[in-house]
Specification:
Layout: H1 28-46, H2 57-78, H3 83-114, H4 123-134, H5 152-167, H6 174-195, H7 207-227, H8 241-251, H9 257-278, H10 286-317, H11 321-367
Helix pairs in contact: 1-2, 1-8, 1-10, 2-5, 2-7, 2-9, 3-4, 3-5, 3-10, 3-11, 5-7, 6-7, 6-9, 7-9, 8-9, 10-11
Protein backbone atom coordinates (compact mmCIF):
# COMPACT_ATOMS: atom_id res chain seq x y z
CA UNK A 1 0.00 0.00 0.00
CA UNK A 2 1.52 3.37 -0.98
CA UNK A 3 2.38 5.68 1.83
CA UNK A 4 2.78 9.35 2.42
CA UNK A 5 5.44 12.47 4.86
CA UNK A 6 4.64 13.01 5.03
CA UNK A 7 5.74 13.23 5.25
CA UNK A 8 5.55 14.84 5.14
CA UNK A 9 5.67 17.72 4.53
CA UNK A 10 5.04 18.81 6.07
CA UNK A 11 7.01 21.43 7.94
CA UNK A 12 7.28 25.14 7.46
CA UNK A 13 10.40 26.45 5.75
CA UNK A 14 12.53 29.47 6.50
CA UNK A 15 13.14 29.00 10.18
CA UNK A 16 15.09 31.83 11.79
CA UNK A 17 18.08 30.93 13.91
CA UNK A 18 20.04 32.82 16.48
CA UNK A 19 23.61 33.79 16.13
CA UNK A 20 23.88 37.51 15.53
CA UNK A 21 25.41 39.23 12.52
CA UNK A 22 26.59 36.96 9.80
CA UNK A 23 24.66 33.98 11.14
CA UNK A 24 22.59 31.97 8.65
CA UNK A 25 18.95 33.00 8.46
CA UNK A 26 17.49 29.61 7.61
CA UNK A 27 18.26 25.91 7.75
CA UNK A 28 19.27 25.49 4.12
CA UNK A 29 20.29 21.86 4.69
CA UNK A 30 16.87 21.02 6.09
CA UNK A 31 15.25 22.72 3.10
CA UNK A 32 17.20 20.42 0.80
CA UNK A 33 16.45 17.35 2.91
CA UNK A 34 12.74 18.10 3.03
CA UNK A 35 12.63 18.52 -0.74
CA UNK A 36 14.60 15.35 -1.42
CA UNK A 37 12.38 13.40 0.97
CA UNK A 38 9.26 14.56 -0.91
CA UNK A 39 10.87 13.51 -4.19
CA UNK A 40 11.62 10.08 -2.70
CA UNK A 41 7.97 9.60 -1.68
CA UNK A 42 6.67 10.63 -5.10
CA UNK A 43 9.16 8.37 -6.88
CA UNK A 44 8.30 5.45 -4.58
CA UNK A 45 4.64 5.77 -5.53
CA UNK A 46 5.41 6.12 -9.24
CA UNK A 47 8.10 3.43 -9.50
CA UNK A 48 8.68 1.44 -6.33
CA UNK A 49 11.85 -0.17 -7.69
CA UNK A 50 13.51 3.21 -8.15
CA UNK A 51 13.01 4.19 -4.49
CA UNK A 52 12.25 0.99 -2.52
CA UNK A 53 12.21 2.58 0.94
CA UNK A 54 10.67 5.91 -0.05
CA UNK A 55 7.84 5.47 2.44
CA UNK A 56 10.34 6.07 5.26
CA UNK A 57 10.50 9.72 4.23
CA UNK A 58 7.22 10.10 6.12
CA UNK A 59 9.02 9.47 9.41
CA UNK A 60 11.65 12.04 8.49
CA UNK A 61 8.86 14.52 7.74
CA UNK A 62 7.34 13.95 11.18
CA UNK A 63 10.69 14.39 12.94
CA UNK A 64 11.36 17.54 10.93
CA UNK A 65 7.89 18.93 11.62
CA UNK A 66 8.21 18.35 15.36
CA UNK A 67 11.60 20.08 15.34
CA UNK A 68 10.49 23.07 13.27
CA UNK A 69 7.21 23.65 15.08
CA UNK A 70 8.79 23.34 18.51
CA UNK A 71 11.50 25.84 17.56
CA UNK A 72 8.94 28.19 16.03
CA UNK A 73 6.02 28.04 18.43
CA UNK A 74 7.46 27.27 21.88
CA UNK A 75 8.43 30.95 22.34
CA UNK A 76 5.04 32.07 21.02
CA UNK A 77 3.17 29.84 23.46
CA UNK A 78 5.31 31.30 26.23
CA UNK A 79 4.19 34.75 25.07
CA UNK A 80 0.51 33.82 25.29
CA UNK A 81 -0.41 32.19 21.97
CA UNK A 82 -3.58 30.17 22.55
CA UNK A 83 -4.33 26.65 21.37
CA UNK A 84 -7.22 27.74 19.14
CA UNK A 85 -5.20 30.42 17.38
CA UNK A 86 -2.31 28.00 16.89
CA UNK A 87 -4.55 25.37 15.30
CA UNK A 88 -6.14 27.96 13.02
CA UNK A 89 -2.69 29.03 11.84
CA UNK A 90 -1.69 25.43 11.18
CA UNK A 91 -4.88 24.62 9.28
CA UNK A 92 -4.45 27.76 7.17
CA UNK A 93 -0.94 26.53 6.40
CA UNK A 94 -1.95 22.96 5.54
CA UNK A 95 -5.45 23.18 4.10
CA UNK A 96 -4.97 24.85 0.67
CA UNK A 97 -2.65 22.19 -0.74
CA UNK A 98 -4.57 19.43 1.01
CA UNK A 99 -7.66 20.81 -0.75
CA UNK A 100 -5.88 20.96 -4.10
CA UNK A 101 -4.81 17.33 -3.76
CA UNK A 102 -8.41 16.25 -3.13
CA UNK A 103 -9.72 18.39 -6.01
CA UNK A 104 -7.18 16.91 -8.43
CA UNK A 105 -7.92 13.40 -7.19
CA UNK A 106 -11.66 13.91 -7.72
CA UNK A 107 -11.07 15.34 -11.19
CA UNK A 108 -8.82 12.46 -12.24
CA UNK A 109 -11.32 9.93 -10.86
CA UNK A 110 -14.14 11.53 -12.86
CA UNK A 111 -12.08 11.69 -16.06
CA UNK A 112 -11.00 8.07 -15.75
CA UNK A 113 -14.59 7.01 -15.13
CA UNK A 114 -15.65 8.95 -18.23
CA UNK A 115 -13.23 7.07 -20.47
CA UNK A 116 -13.98 3.72 -18.85
CA UNK A 117 -10.63 3.31 -17.09
CA UNK A 118 -10.39 1.21 -13.94
CA UNK A 119 -11.03 3.11 -10.70
CA UNK A 120 -10.58 1.83 -7.13
CA UNK A 121 -14.03 2.94 -5.89
CA UNK A 122 -17.66 2.99 -6.93
CA UNK A 123 -18.83 6.48 -8.04
CA UNK A 124 -21.23 6.93 -5.10
CA UNK A 125 -18.57 6.01 -2.54
CA UNK A 126 -16.07 8.25 -4.32
CA UNK A 127 -18.50 11.17 -4.12
CA UNK A 128 -18.96 10.87 -0.35
CA UNK A 129 -15.23 10.31 0.08
CA UNK A 130 -14.58 13.46 -1.91
CA UNK A 131 -16.94 15.53 0.28
CA UNK A 132 -15.32 14.21 3.46
CA UNK A 133 -11.89 14.95 1.98
CA UNK A 134 -12.87 18.57 1.46
CA UNK A 135 -13.24 18.76 5.24
CA UNK A 136 -9.90 16.97 5.77
CA UNK A 137 -11.76 13.95 7.18
CA UNK A 138 -11.01 10.30 6.40
CA UNK A 139 -13.59 8.19 4.60
CA UNK A 140 -15.28 5.24 6.35
CA UNK A 141 -16.34 3.83 2.96
CA UNK A 142 -13.08 2.15 1.99
CA UNK A 143 -10.02 0.49 3.48
CA UNK A 144 -7.60 3.44 3.13
CA UNK A 145 -8.30 6.50 5.25
CA UNK A 146 -8.14 8.68 2.14
CA UNK A 147 -8.75 6.40 -0.86
CA UNK A 148 -8.82 9.21 -3.44
CA UNK A 149 -5.51 10.69 -2.29
CA UNK A 150 -3.85 8.01 -0.16
CA UNK A 151 -0.84 10.05 1.10
CA UNK A 152 -3.26 12.42 2.84
CA UNK A 153 -3.28 10.01 5.78
CA UNK A 154 -0.03 11.50 7.03
CA UNK A 155 -1.34 15.06 6.61
CA UNK A 156 -4.33 14.09 8.75
CA UNK A 157 -1.98 12.74 11.41
CA UNK A 158 0.16 15.86 11.06
CA UNK A 159 -2.83 17.92 12.21
CA UNK A 160 -3.41 15.58 15.13
CA UNK A 161 0.28 15.82 16.01
CA UNK A 162 0.06 19.62 15.93
CA UNK A 163 -2.70 19.46 18.52
CA UNK A 164 -0.65 17.01 20.57
CA UNK A 165 2.31 19.38 20.38
CA UNK A 166 0.37 22.30 21.80
CA UNK A 167 -1.57 20.38 24.44
CA UNK A 168 1.02 17.86 25.61
CA UNK A 169 4.49 17.68 24.06
CA UNK A 170 5.62 21.24 24.76
CA UNK A 171 4.33 20.97 28.33
CA UNK A 172 6.21 17.80 29.23
CA UNK A 173 9.48 17.91 31.14
CA UNK A 174 12.32 16.40 29.16
CA UNK A 175 12.35 13.13 31.11
CA UNK A 176 8.63 12.62 30.42
CA UNK A 177 9.11 13.37 26.72
CA UNK A 178 11.91 10.81 26.56
CA UNK A 179 9.71 8.29 28.39
CA UNK A 180 6.90 8.86 25.86
CA UNK A 181 9.32 8.31 22.97
CA UNK A 182 10.62 5.08 24.54
CA UNK A 183 7.07 3.77 25.09
CA UNK A 184 6.16 4.51 21.46
CA UNK A 185 9.33 2.77 20.24
CA UNK A 186 8.54 -0.27 22.39
CA UNK A 187 5.02 -0.45 20.98
CA UNK A 188 6.07 0.21 17.38
CA UNK A 189 8.92 -2.30 17.06
CA UNK A 190 6.99 -5.60 17.40
CA UNK A 191 4.26 -4.30 15.07
CA UNK A 192 6.78 -3.46 12.35
CA UNK A 193 8.52 -6.82 12.82
CA UNK A 194 5.20 -8.63 12.40
CA UNK A 195 4.24 -6.50 9.40
CA UNK A 196 7.62 -7.01 7.74
CA UNK A 197 8.31 -3.36 6.89
CA UNK A 198 7.66 0.23 7.91
CA UNK A 199 5.27 0.72 5.01
CA UNK A 200 2.22 0.97 7.24
CA UNK A 201 -0.26 3.56 8.49
CA UNK A 202 -2.61 4.49 5.64
CA UNK A 203 -5.38 1.99 6.40
CA UNK A 204 -8.18 2.08 8.95
CA UNK A 205 -6.80 -1.11 10.50
CA UNK A 206 -3.44 0.64 10.95
CA UNK A 207 -4.59 3.71 12.88
CA UNK A 208 -2.92 2.47 16.07
CA UNK A 209 0.49 1.98 14.49
CA UNK A 210 0.11 5.26 12.59
CA UNK A 211 -0.47 7.00 15.93
CA UNK A 212 2.64 5.39 17.43
CA UNK A 213 4.70 6.18 14.34
CA UNK A 214 3.60 9.82 14.33
CA UNK A 215 4.00 10.38 18.07
CA UNK A 216 7.45 8.78 18.17
CA UNK A 217 8.90 10.79 15.30
CA UNK A 218 7.13 14.04 16.14
CA UNK A 219 8.13 13.76 19.78
CA UNK A 220 11.74 13.04 18.84
CA UNK A 221 11.76 16.19 16.71
CA UNK A 222 10.53 18.19 19.70
CA UNK A 223 13.25 16.61 21.85
CA UNK A 224 15.98 17.54 19.35
CA UNK A 225 14.60 21.08 19.16
CA UNK A 226 15.10 21.39 22.90
CA UNK A 227 18.66 20.09 22.70
CA UNK A 228 19.86 21.89 19.56
CA UNK A 229 19.76 25.53 20.56
CA UNK A 230 22.68 26.57 18.39
CA UNK A 231 22.48 27.74 14.77
CA UNK A 232 23.94 25.52 12.04
CA UNK A 233 27.70 25.51 11.79
CA UNK A 234 29.57 27.37 9.08
CA UNK A 235 28.78 26.32 5.52
CA UNK A 236 30.88 23.38 4.39
CA UNK A 237 31.17 21.09 1.38
CA UNK A 238 30.90 18.19 3.82
CA UNK A 239 27.31 19.25 4.49
CA UNK A 240 26.42 17.98 1.00
CA UNK A 241 26.65 14.44 2.36
CA UNK A 242 23.75 14.99 4.77
CA UNK A 243 20.93 15.53 2.24
CA UNK A 244 22.57 12.99 -0.06
CA UNK A 245 22.12 10.43 2.74
CA UNK A 246 18.34 10.76 2.31
CA UNK A 247 18.57 9.51 -1.27
CA UNK A 248 21.03 6.75 -0.44
CA UNK A 249 19.15 5.39 2.56
CA UNK A 250 15.75 5.39 0.84
CA UNK A 251 17.05 3.94 -2.44
CA UNK A 252 18.77 0.88 -0.95
CA UNK A 253 17.58 -2.51 -2.28
CA UNK A 254 14.49 -4.05 -0.70
CA UNK A 255 16.23 -6.51 1.59
CA UNK A 256 15.83 -6.96 5.32
CA UNK A 257 12.77 -4.72 5.33
CA UNK A 258 11.68 -4.87 8.95
CA UNK A 259 15.09 -4.52 10.61
CA UNK A 260 16.24 -1.80 8.22
CA UNK A 261 12.98 0.13 8.47
CA UNK A 262 12.94 -0.05 12.27
CA UNK A 263 16.49 1.25 12.36
CA UNK A 264 15.64 4.11 10.01
CA UNK A 265 12.46 5.08 11.87
CA UNK A 266 13.87 4.86 15.39
CA UNK A 267 17.43 6.06 14.77
CA UNK A 268 18.07 7.06 11.15
CA UNK A 269 15.50 9.81 10.73
CA UNK A 270 16.22 11.56 14.07
CA UNK A 271 19.95 11.32 13.38
CA UNK A 272 19.52 12.80 9.90
CA UNK A 273 17.43 15.63 11.34
CA UNK A 274 20.02 16.38 13.99
CA UNK A 275 22.84 16.34 11.42
CA UNK A 276 20.89 18.56 9.04
CA UNK A 277 20.22 21.08 11.80
CA UNK A 278 23.91 21.28 12.68
CA UNK A 279 25.55 21.78 9.27
CA UNK A 280 24.90 24.39 6.62
CA UNK A 281 25.18 23.86 2.87
CA UNK A 282 27.50 26.06 0.81
CA UNK A 283 26.07 29.27 -0.60
CA UNK A 284 25.71 27.97 -4.15
CA UNK A 285 23.16 25.45 -2.87
CA UNK A 286 20.84 28.14 -1.49
CA UNK A 287 18.63 28.55 -4.58
CA UNK A 288 18.05 24.85 -5.44
CA UNK A 289 17.72 23.90 -1.76
CA UNK A 290 15.24 26.71 -1.16
CA UNK A 291 13.25 25.76 -4.25
CA UNK A 292 12.81 22.08 -3.49
CA UNK A 293 12.13 22.89 0.15
CA UNK A 294 9.49 25.44 -0.82
CA UNK A 295 7.63 23.09 -3.17
CA UNK A 296 8.09 19.94 -1.06
CA UNK A 297 4.67 20.07 0.62
CA UNK A 298 2.94 20.80 -2.69
CA UNK A 299 4.79 17.92 -4.33
CA UNK A 300 3.71 15.61 -1.56
CA UNK A 301 0.10 16.79 -1.53
CA UNK A 302 -0.63 16.66 -5.27
CA UNK A 303 1.55 13.93 -6.78
CA UNK A 304 -0.78 10.98 -6.08
CA UNK A 305 -3.60 11.92 -8.51
CA UNK A 306 -1.08 12.32 -11.32
CA UNK A 307 0.49 8.88 -10.98
CA UNK A 308 -1.99 6.76 -12.94
CA UNK A 309 -2.36 9.22 -15.86
CA UNK A 310 1.41 9.55 -16.18
CA UNK A 311 1.92 5.81 -15.83
CA UNK A 312 -0.62 5.26 -18.60
CA UNK A 313 1.28 7.71 -20.80
CA UNK A 314 4.59 6.02 -19.97
CA UNK A 315 3.23 2.60 -20.85
CA UNK A 316 1.50 3.80 -24.01
CA UNK A 317 4.73 5.35 -25.27
CA UNK A 318 6.85 2.44 -23.97
CA UNK A 319 9.25 4.84 -22.27
CA UNK A 320 12.13 3.36 -20.29
CA UNK A 321 12.07 3.96 -16.51
CA UNK A 322 15.48 5.62 -16.88
CA UNK A 323 13.70 8.36 -18.80
CA UNK A 324 10.18 8.15 -17.37
CA UNK A 325 11.18 8.48 -13.70
CA UNK A 326 13.18 11.73 -14.09
CA UNK A 327 10.48 13.12 -16.36
CA UNK A 328 7.83 12.31 -13.75
CA UNK A 329 9.78 14.11 -11.03
CA UNK A 330 10.48 17.10 -13.29
CA UNK A 331 6.78 17.31 -14.21
CA UNK A 332 5.73 17.11 -10.59
CA UNK A 333 8.22 19.78 -9.51
CA UNK A 334 6.78 22.15 -12.11
CA UNK A 335 3.23 21.31 -11.04
CA UNK A 336 4.19 21.76 -7.39
CA UNK A 337 5.68 25.19 -8.12
CA UNK A 338 2.53 26.23 -9.99
CA UNK A 339 0.42 24.95 -7.09
CA UNK A 340 2.40 27.01 -4.58
CA UNK A 341 2.50 30.12 -6.74
CA UNK A 342 -1.06 30.21 -8.05
CA UNK A 343 -3.11 28.28 -5.50
CA UNK A 344 -1.47 27.88 -2.10
CA UNK A 345 -0.09 31.37 -1.58
CA UNK A 346 -3.18 33.28 -2.81
CA UNK A 347 -5.59 31.10 -0.83
CA UNK A 348 -3.50 31.34 2.32
CA UNK A 349 -3.41 35.13 1.97
CA UNK A 350 -7.19 35.23 1.60
CA UNK A 351 -7.75 32.93 4.58
CA UNK A 352 -5.31 34.88 6.75
CA UNK A 353 -6.89 38.21 5.76
CA UNK A 354 -10.38 36.88 6.47
CA UNK A 355 -9.32 35.58 9.88
CA UNK A 356 -7.51 38.83 10.67
CA UNK A 357 -10.69 40.73 9.76
CA UNK A 358 -12.77 38.54 12.06
CA UNK A 359 -10.37 39.15 14.93
CA UNK A 360 -10.40 42.89 14.22
CA UNK A 361 -14.21 42.96 14.35
CA UNK A 362 -14.17 40.90 17.54
CA UNK A 363 -11.73 43.32 19.16
CA UNK A 364 -13.92 46.30 18.20
CA UNK A 365 -17.04 44.64 19.63
CA UNK A 366 -15.18 43.79 22.83
CA UNK A 367 -14.02 47.41 23.12
CA UNK A 368 -17.63 48.58 22.88
Amino acid sequence: MPRSPTEPALAEARQPVAGGAGAPTRYVTLDAMRGLAAICVALFHFDIWAMPHGYLAVDFFFVLSGFVLARTYAPRFAQGLGFGRFMVKRIVRLYPLFLLGILLAGLVFALRAEVGAANPMAPAAAWWTFLLGLAMLPSPLDVPLFPLNVPSWSLFFEILANALLALVLLRLPRWALIALIVVCAAGLTPILLAHGSGNIGALWSEIGVASLRTTYSFGFGVLIAGLANLPPRRASWLALFVPAAILVMLALPRTGHAAYDIGMILIGSPLLLWAGSRVQLPGFCLIPASFIGEVSYALYAVHWPMIEPLRDLRDRLAVSPLIADPMFIATMLVLAWLAVRWFDMPLRRRLSAALAGDHSVARKVAAG
